[in-house]
């Protein structure tokens, strides 16, 4: 298990280094350079001076080495636009994105697992068919559109929920207020995960229910309930654990779009602004941190998978 | 069902029925496909969308980009079937022209992802060993990163021209295709007909292209259909963030993005483009699912 964990950890780190190099090359090969250098008020000399000061004249490998060395010491540089340390910018936004994505995943699991169980136990019932149909809608719906529609319904028409942001302006922080602001974005994001999680729970349980040990459990007189909960479900949820790992990159992407719809101050917003103004340090910082969060979460999911199913790490 | 069943256990059916004349793979698939009503409706809907998109500028009743400031937010009428937007432009005409953008991006990006995916998948599956390990590591790596952020960077940095959008979507969505093609190639590589072809002197390239890849066509077809759906969604998300098709040119995504500012004045405005995205993507997904059922009946019977 330890060897397996180390192997996966090395892979995760290598992947992260590759992501950072690709991002670095991509952004530095852009025509034009950072937006602050395109300021028409600056003279040619001033631009050249600023460019030299930011180290943009050095060869790319030198620049990358310098940046990577600083990152290893915990220094992500300073935003070109606001002169704030990138670490502070990310520190202020990352928890908001994690809150959004985490709550959405939790809500998805809480609804999807029972739903998937019922569908698996009553295959081809009206509920099972309805869920199968809704799954198609779930994967085909543009999340941002659903967000706008919910805003129109709950904020514009019914006026019961706020249309965006994290808190009401001019009011002190309160848990209730935060929750009210979370309801719409979390539901929108959760709905995207819901369809897939339900499907995987269902197919996992359907497969497991035909196993010999389930028949044995039945044969020794256990109730349906304890057969399902005590024996089948544990194994049926193993594939669900992996699918969470697969879904994470998409959940973060979905969060970026959901943030734009609900003006939620998270990593997505930060990354989009930085990318459009070519704020190199912020772009590199956000991409690296988001990639790190996703890659290490899927590393942990893999470990959980290996722990739950010994065949994986031994095979 | 067209499949002959031998049912020895049933009384009165002890004699195996005579096999019906063998029908070609594609014909059997078509028979199965055409029985699926949802799929047929989806196919018809998409056909209609293709025609509308192809002749968008002639079909649109009004100039989609003509600004009429005095006609802001008009309700639907005979002249403006779905009303007008914040600049007095005809919403119906813009939706029609937007269809062209979405479908063109969807199809082109899908072709790119299919080409890359098939290439990676078939090379990995056919040659195996070290090549396979390297290619599949890259595929896994691509799947594990939140590439949406990379897509954002690329379009923000290199500009959001049609070509850039299509390339970036294609290059970030070939991984599923690669895995499917690889597993198909692995499955057929060991077959006798491949050994036979090799024994009469066929080279690697010929074996792969003429003898193995044709067997992967059904899976590729399914992946392609689902890939268009995915690409259309991705383009609309980029346009929504202001990084896709640039206004004043209309795309469903940028129409949605615009409309969000006017939900208090004109709450119907965001309804139409979103509904069209939903219906089009849904139709591609239904079609892909039906193709899978038609081309690979074991998939459904396998209990998935």
TrEMBL record, chain A:
UniProt-annotated location(s): Cell membrane
Gene Ontology CC, one term: plasma membrane
CDD domains membership: TM_PBP2
Keywords on record: Cell membrane, Membrane, Transmembrane, Transmembrane helix, Transport
Domain ABC transmembrane type-1: 94-301
InterPro entries given in the database record: BPD_transp_1_N, MetI-like, MetI-like_sf
Membrane topology value: Multi-pass membrane protein
A single GO BP: transmembrane transport
Pfam families in the cross-refs: BPD_transp_1, BPD_transp_1_N
Transmembrane regions listed in the UniProt entry: 12-30, 98-121, 133-158, 236-262, 282-308
Family affiliation: Belongs to the binding-protein-dependent transport system permease family.
Protein name: Dipeptide transport system permease protein DppB
Phylogenetic placement of the source organism: Bacteria, Pseudomonadati, Thermomicrobiota, Thermomicrobia, Thermomicrobiales
TrEMBL record, chain B:
SUPFAM superfamilies assigned: MetI-like
Highest taxon of the lineage: Bacteria
Record's keyword terms, sorted: Cell membrane, Membrane, Transmembrane, Transmembrane helix, Transport
GO biological process: transmembrane transport
Membrane disposition: Multi-pass membrane protein
Localization terms from the record: Cell membrane
Statement: the UniProt record of this protein carries the keyword DNA-binding: no
Domain ABC transmembrane type-1: 99-288
A Pfam family of this chain: BPD_transp_1
Record flagged with keyword Transport: yes
Gene Ontology CC: plasma membrane
Family: Belongs to the binding-protein-dependent transport system permease family.
Protein name as catalogued: Dipeptide transport system permease protein DppC
């Amino acid at each position: 298990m330890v060897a397996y964990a180390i192997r996966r950890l090395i892979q995760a780190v290598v992947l992260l280094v590759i992501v950072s190099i690709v991002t670095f090359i991509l952004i530095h090969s852009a025509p034009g350079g950072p937006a602050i250098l395109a300021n028409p008020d600056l003279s040619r000399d001033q631009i050249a001076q600023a460019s030299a000061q930011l180290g943009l004249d050095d060869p790319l490998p030198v620049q990358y080495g310098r940046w990577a060395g600083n990152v290893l010491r915990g220094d992500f540089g300073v935003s070109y636009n606001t002169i704030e340390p990138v670490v502070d910018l990310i520190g202020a936004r990352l928890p908001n994105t994690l809150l959004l994505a985490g709550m959405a995943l939790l809500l998805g699991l809480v609804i999807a697992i029972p739903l998937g169980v019922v569908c698996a136990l009553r295959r081809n019932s009206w509920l099972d068919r309805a869920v199968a149909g809704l799954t198609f809608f779930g994967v085909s719906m543009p999340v941002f559109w659903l967000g706008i529609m919910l805003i129109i319904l709950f904020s514009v028409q019914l006026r019961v929920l706020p249309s965006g942001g994290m808190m009401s302006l001019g009011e002190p922080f309160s848990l209730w207020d935060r929750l009210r602001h979370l309801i719409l974005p979390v539901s929108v994001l959760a709905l995207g995960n819901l369809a897939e999680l339900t499907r995987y729970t269902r197919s996992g349980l359907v497969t497991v229910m035909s196993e010999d040990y389930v028949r044995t459990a039945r044969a020794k007189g256990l109730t349906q309930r304890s057969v399902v909960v005590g024996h089948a479900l544990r194994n049926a949820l193993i594939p669900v654990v992996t699918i969470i790992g697969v879904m994470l990159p998409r959940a973060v992407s979905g969060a970026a779009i959901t943030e734009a719809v609900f003006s939620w101050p998270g990593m997505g917003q930060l990354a989009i602004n930085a990318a459009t103004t070519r704020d190199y340090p912020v772009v590199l910082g956000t991409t690296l941190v988001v990639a790190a969060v996703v890659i290490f979460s899927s590393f942990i999911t893999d470990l959980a998978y290996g722990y739950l199913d010994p065949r994986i790490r031994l095979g | 069902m067209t499949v002959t069943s031998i049912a020895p256990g049933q009384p009165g059916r002890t004699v195996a029925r005579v096999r019906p004349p063998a029908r070609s793979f594609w014909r059997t698939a078509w028979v199965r496909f055409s029985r699926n009503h949802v799929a047929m409706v989806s196919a018809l809907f998409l056909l209609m969308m293709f025609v509308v998109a192809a002749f968008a500028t002639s079909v649109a009743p009004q100039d989609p980009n003509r600004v009429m400031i005095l006609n802001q937010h008009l309700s639907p009428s005979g002249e403006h079937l779905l009303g007008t937007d914040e600049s007095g432009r005809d919403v119906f005409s813009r939706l029609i022209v937007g269809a062209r953008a979405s479908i063109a991006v969807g199809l082109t990006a899908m072709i790119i992802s299919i080409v890359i995916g098939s290439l990676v998948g078939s090379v990995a599956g056919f040659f195996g060993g070290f090549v396979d390990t390297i290619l599949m590591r890259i595929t896994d790596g691509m799947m594990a990163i939140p590439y949406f952020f990379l897509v954002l960077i690329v379009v923000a940095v290199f500009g959001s021209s049609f070509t850039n959008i299509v390339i970036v979507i294609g290059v970030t969505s070939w991984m599923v295709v690669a895995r499917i093609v690889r597993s198909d190639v692995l499955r057929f590589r060991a077959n006798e007909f491949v050994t036979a072809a090799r024994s009469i002197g066929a080279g690697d390239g010929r074996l792969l292209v003429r003898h193995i890849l044709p067997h992967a066509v059904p899976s590729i077809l399914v992946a392609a259909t689902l890939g268009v759906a995915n690409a259309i969604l991705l383009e609309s998300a980029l346009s929504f963030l202001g990084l896709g098709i640039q206004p004043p040119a209309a795309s469903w995504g940028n129409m949605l993005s615009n409309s969000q500012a006017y939900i208090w004045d004109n709450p119907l405005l965001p309804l139409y483009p979103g509904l069209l995205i939903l219906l089009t993507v849904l139709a591609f997904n239904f079609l892909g699912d039906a193709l899978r059922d038609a081309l690979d009946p074991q998939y459904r019977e396998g209990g998935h």
